[in-house]
Specification:
The complex is a heterotrimer. By secondary structure, chain A is an alpha/beta fold. Chain A has a single domain, classed as Dihydropteroate synthase-like (TIM Barrel), CATH 3.20.20. Chain A is built from eleven helices and ten strands. By secondary structure, chain B is of the alpha/beta class. In chain B, α10 links the parallel β11 and β12. Chain B is flat. In chain C, about 50% of the residues lie in helices and about 15% in strands. In chain C, α3 links the parallel β2 and β3. In chain C, α6 packs parallel to α7 and α7 runs parallel beside α8. The two termini of chain C are about 15 Å apart. Classes of the chains: A alpha/beta, B alpha/beta, C alpha/beta. At the A-B interface, α7, α10 and α11 of A face α8, α9, α10, α11 and α12 of B.
């Protein structure tokens, strides 16, 4: 029997996030993702050169609407992003921290863009891990904050997001000026995923510094669309489409914890079992599927979900 | 994939006699390859040619049935490696293992029977009870198999490498077509004979893909037709590799010895969460049957959901139940929005309402799973269907106002909806992302102040 | 689609002059321009004027290799000229071309098999180019069987059904399309199908429309490679659009730009 081995003409780009002192930053580690030459985890065709990276979310306000299961691991640090970041690094050991500047949003506090930049500085001081910075998904407020935050993190080689088809110019200019990578998001639409990359590159930004976020649907809530779009992006990229050859990002936690099955209390759905087991597993199962579709960078909410996926990756990569 | 023109040409007499109506044997072969002719047209075709062409017209992965009656499951007959290329047709059968010597085994079997849930209008459940023989005692195992069927109501996977134990169990429950699953490459002809005698499917475990292919040929020659191939017994990495290789060889190369559905076991020594994640991968990556030791709903519900999502036909999207949904904690003055029952549309709209932190009701109209614009174009989302849904929903009893927010894309429907339903229509944003802003700043209804 | 540039050919005045003057910089410039416009390979043809074709071929190869490692397409009927060019090229080249005449196949197939090269083979034998679809497919089948014997895998074989000018053989384009689609059924993996586009409109009016429409139709029939001038923008736009319509590249609003960005 002659086994079918697939040889693809192209490879996925590699993107490095974070900068050590020799790279002009102050991080104690950097993270490199991408570089695959085959479909996910098919070691018999070529081992993935970089392990998928796992990030943990921190918020710039106290998330009172989070379910207890999710608040519990961070309880003492909620509301203080710097302390929260430090706690994550020390206790839960993610590869990166993802700072969400949600309080910028008019509905979530409408805080000052200057304050967002202060938060970025404080978080960078409190953790030595590479940093992902995420705006509030309100274009006007984000565009006020992006340049300030990019400047506040100058030299640290962060991943900043997100750029969309309608709103990419300010972020692209800011990342060009202060040398950060871009998190490009598209609404579960492969055509737009490609278009955003073209638009960003046309501003002179290196397409090899972009990460694609095809917008995660949680398990049970549309993940089949994300799964297939990620697979299609990866197949097109391996086949030579340079405008889709970026590493893929799964914003797992934010979406998984919107699922009823993740956050509902046991008293409301006794037939679903304990929420403390159920929530983190819902998040981890979402991540496990995205890994099979090609995800390179996963952002988690619950440290237990991150831990499970770290072990799961050992199992997939056969690391005892 | 069918035979190529040259493959067929090589099987033909190469006399260019023209009796088939084509000028040359190659021209005839090309017609056969493009299915524009039948081999019968050639009066000189050999038996070998007939057999080869017949085999090539079989589906590349055999359809195998486990169980009999209403709760039987079908696996295999898949045609693609990626679901977007077509769809995955026969969803992975989920099997929960029960060990013969487990003192809790009866309770466990009863629990398995209860592992069924309803998600987006579909019942999802564990399909098989995997019974692992441990006693070496044929009578005991046969009694266990019989009792397991009574307690779980599910078809069985009989895991045993003991011919007498399997034979005794099959005497009792053979009619319900369990999957015979010896965990050994030895005595394959004997197991195949047992499978043939009871017309049951047989799992083949060679320890490696190459060996499994050899065993499946031997099993087939010994008369077992419905085979299931065991994929990988080491790490998840090996299982993934085996499942991928088997699927590719079957589809791309039409390699007959691997043209069967597969079975894979999660690592019994791993903790339950690791087993659950492993099972999720096996479901996504082609396993026909997944056997796990998981029993708690916390672990089974996500797996059944993974299966439901992966096996959703991309051409036939998941539909949510058309009814009135509360989002957040609405009261009698909360806004009422309407959308279609395409799952992704619903999830997006529901998510945006939730993000607005304003309690609301969301009315979902049955549009056969199409999005707002598609449903409107197909006349499934119109004044009549919206008004009917509104009346059937009971919204009038829950709300003190009579205002309905219509998606901006179908603003043209406003007048007609008002006419048919008697409710006041407000035109909402075109994209769901505009909902939070709309509810906060533009929405006028609900408080009654604009009712004049 | 695999794009083979036809512009480095001694029949064109600029190239002829450059060969005569041994102006390597001029050749290098054309090569880079054609690659930037989207060529995947560069056809090298010394033309008829060169007194020493083998020497001229070696010089052309070296002139291009000085600026690019791109795939070269060594274009000459004489195997000794090809051999000389192959030696200079080292690897990453295609031989253009062999006919299906037995003596040619006996020479070119082993050379391609041994050097790891691709080979363009014309459906033209001792009796010339057949007028029918079946005739072309028969020849293709013969080439494939001979290639198998010589150890050249089908996917390194480019079968060219031989394009004739529309103004002398108007019944031919339709037959070529059918032949191309049948080539794909011959083997697994199938041989690749290639056509030289410019000959179709040789001596005709509306060259762009004729070649463009035919390119699009041939892509639909399963064409894998084409020999053309990548600086012909209309042709390339049609080709890119064809790739999108055949679902070979992912559509996006600026798909023309995306394709060109991917080439640089």
């Amino acid at each position: 029997m002659e086994t079918v081995i697939e040889k693809w003409p192209a490879a996925i780009n590699t993107v490095t996030i974070g900068a050590r002192e020799d790279g002009g930053g102050t991080r104690s580690s950097t993270v490199t993702i991408g570089g695959e030459t085959t479909l996910p985890f098919l070691a018999f065709e070529g081992a993935p050169p970089h392990r998928p990276a796992l990030a943990l979310d921190i918020l710039d306000y106290s998330p009172d609407d989070w379910p207890e299961t999710l608040r519990e691991p961070f309880r003492e640090a909620l509301g203080d992003p710097a302390e929260w970041a430090g706690l994550c690094q020390e206790k839960y050991r993610p590869d990166l921290i993802c700072l969400r500047l949600q309080s910028l949003h008019p509905d979530w506090g409408d805080t000052d863009p200057e304050r967002a930049a202060e938060t970025v500085r404080a978080v960078l001081a409190a953790t030595s891990l590479p940093l992902i910075i995420c705006g509030c998904d309100h274009p006007e407020k984000d565009n006020l904050a992006f340049p300030l935050c990019a400047a506040a993190a100058a030299g640290e080689n962060c991943l900043i997001g997100f750029a969309t088809e309608e709103n990419y110019k300010t972020l692209t200019a800011a990342c060009l000026a202060d040398n950060h990578a871009i998190w490009a998001q598209s609404p579960i639409d492969i055509n737009i995923a490609k278009q955003v990359n073209i638009l960003i590159s046309e501003m002179g930004f290196d397409p090899k510094r972009i990460v694609i976020d095809p917008n995660t649907g949680a398990l049970g809530y549309g993940i089949e669309y994300t799964y297939s779009i990620m697979e299609r992006i990866r197949l097109a990229a391996l086949d030579g489409d340079k405008m889709l050859a970026m590493p893929l990002l799964g914003d797992v936690g934010a979406d998984a914890w919107r699922a009823k099955e993740a956050k509902a209390a046991e008293k409301d759905f006794p037939e679903w079992g304990e929420e403390n087991l159920r929530g983190p597993l819902w998040e981890a199962a979402t991540a496990a599927l995205l890994l099979q579709a090609g995800a390179d960078l996963l952002i988690f909410r619950h440290p237990e979900a991150l831990r499970k996926i770290r072990d799961h990756l050992d199992n997939l990569l056969d690391i005892a | 994939m069918a035979l190529t023109g040259l493959d067929i040409y090589k099987l033909l007499p190469k006399t260019n006699c023209g009796d088939c109506g084509s000028p040359t044997c190659l021209a005839f072969a090309m017609k056969l390859a493009s299915k524009q002719a039948e081999l019968q047209s050639c009066p000189h075709a050999s038996e070998e040619a007939t057999a080869a062409l017949g085999a090539a017209s079989q589906p590349p992965i055999r359809l195998v049935t486990i169980g009999a009656g209403d709760n039987r499951v079908e696996i295999g007959n898949e045609t693609v490696l990626f679901r977007h290329q077509e769809t995955f047709y026969h969803q992975t059968a989920l099997a929960v293992r029960v060990r013969e010597d487990d003192p809790e085994r009866e309770a466990r079997l009863e629990k398995i029977a209860g592992l069924r849930f309803t998600r987006v209008g579909e019942e999802i459940a564990v399909d098989l009870a995997a019974l692992e023989e441990e006693s070496g005692d044929p009578e005991k195992f046969a009694a266990f198999a019989l009792r397991a069927g009574e307690l779980s109501g599910l078809p069985a996977v009989l895991i045993s490498s003991s011919l007498p134990c399997l034979g005794a169990a099959l005497e009792k429950i053979g009619k319900s077509r369990p999957l015979i699953c010896p965990r050994s490459p030895e005595k394959i002809e004997d197991f195949a004979a047992l499978a043939r005698e009871h017309s049951c499917p047989l799992a083949v475990d060679g320890g490696s893909v190459e060996k499994t292919a050899e065993l499946s040929l031997r099993a087939r020659e010994a008369g077992a037709e419905d085979l299931v191939l065991l994929a990988g017994s080491g790490s998840l990495k090996e299982k993934l590799a085996d499942l991928t290789v088997i699927r590719r060889q079957a589809l791309r190369k039409q390699f007959r010895p691997l043209g069967y559905p597969t079975i894979a076991f999660t690592n019994p020594d791993a903790d339950p969460e690791a087993q659950a994640l492993e099972a999720a991968v096996l479901i996504a990556k082609y396993a026909g049957v997944v056997v796990t030791d998981l029993i708690r709903p916390e672990y089974i519900l996500p797996l059944l959901t993974v299966r439901q999502n992966i096996y959703t036909d991309p051409q036939k999207p998941i539909q949510v139940e058309p009814k009135l949904y509360p989002v957040g904690t609405p009261d009698r003055n909360s806004p009422l929005l309407v959308t279609t029952n395409f799952s992704l549309t619903y999830f997006t709209v529901e998510g945006e309402i939730e993000a607005s932190r304003i309690g609301a009701y969301l009315l979902v109209v049955d549009t056969e799973g199409t999005s707002v614009l598609t449903a409107w174009a197909a006349d499934k989302f119109n004044a009549a269907s919206i008004s009917r849904a509104l009346n059937d929903s009971g919204a009038a009893d829950l709300l003190d106002h009579r205002n309905l927010i219509l998606p901006g894309y179908v603003a043209v429907l406003s007048g007609k909806v008002e006419e048919e339903s008697g409710w006041t229509v407000e035109v909402g944003p075109r994209e769901a992302s505009g909902i939070p802003k709309f509810l906060k700043t533009a929405y006028r209804g609900g408080t009654g102040k604009d009712q004049s | 689609m695999f794009l083979i540039s036809e512009r480095i050919n001694g029949m064109f005045t600029a190239v002829k002059k450059a060969i005569a003057a041994r102006d390597a910089a001029a050749i290098g410039e054309i090569a880079l321009r054609q690659l930037a416009a989207g060529a995947d390979a560069l056809d090298l043809n010394v033309g008829t004027a060169a007194a020493e074709p083998a020497e001229a071929m070696v010089w052309l190869v070296e002139s291009v290799r000085a600026v690019s490692a791109a795939t070269l397409c060594l274009d000459h009927p004489n195997i000794e000229v090809i051999r000389a060019g192959a030696e200079a090229a080292g690897d990453n080249f295609i031989i253009n071309s062999t006919t299906a005449r037995e003596e040619d196949l006996a020479k070119f197939l082993p050379l391609a098999a041994q050097t790891g090269a691709g080979l363009i083979a014309l459906t033209l034998d001792e009796k010339g180019v057949p007028n029918t679809v079946d005739g072309r497919v028969e020849i293709a089948a013969r080439i494939l069987i001979a290639a198998e014997g010589a150890g050249l895998p089908p996917d390194r074989l480019f079968i060219d059904p031989v394009t004739l000018p529309i103004n002398v053989a108007q019944d031919q384009p339709k037959k070529l399309l059918e032949a191309v689609s049948q080539f794909k059924l011959l083997s697994d993996p199938p041989p690749r199908a290639v056509i030289g586009l410019s000959n179709l409109a040789s001596g005709s009016s509306e060259k762009s429309l004729l070649t463009g429409a035919f390119l699009a139709m041939a892509m639909g029939a399963g064409l894998d490679a084409v020999i053309l001038d990548p600086e012909d923008r209309l042709l390339i736009d049609l080709l890119i659009t064809g790739e999108v319509l055949l679902n070979r590249t992912i559509y996006n609003r600026d798909y023309l730009k995306a394709w060109r960005a991917g080439k640089t």
